[in-house]
Amino acid sequence: AEPDVLAVTSACYSLAAGSVLGLGYAWRFRPRAMPLRDPTGMFSRIQVVSRPFYDPTKTRPRMPWC
Questions:
Q1: Residue 9 above 80 pLDDT?
Q2: Cis ω on the peptide bond leading into residue 56 (within 30° of 0)?
Q3: Which residues contact 46 (CB under 8 A, 6 or more apart)?
Q4: Where are the domains of the chain?
Q5: pTM of the model
Q6: CB neighbours of residue 54 within 10 Å
Q7: Omega before 52 cis (within 30°)?
Q8: pLDDT for 20-64, tens place per residue?
C-alpha cells in the first residue's frame, strides 16, 4: 500500500455538510503532513479527524433523516 492512498469504505450525502462524507482507512504510519489522495479521484478535500469521529454521547444537535 502507498502511504498517501485512502481506502474509502463508505460514503453518503450529508444534509448538514451539504456534500458527501465518507469513511475510510489510511496508512497508520503516514507522516501527518502528508496529504491523502483517493486513487479513484471521486473524493477531494480529504481530512483526517481524531477519533472518535462520531458522537458516542449523542450530544450533537440532530437533524431529521430525509
A1: yes
A2: no
A3: 6, 35, 36, 37, 38
A4: 1-54
A5: 0.59
A6: 8
A7: yes
A8: 888 888 888 888 889 999 999 888 888 887 766 667 777 766 666
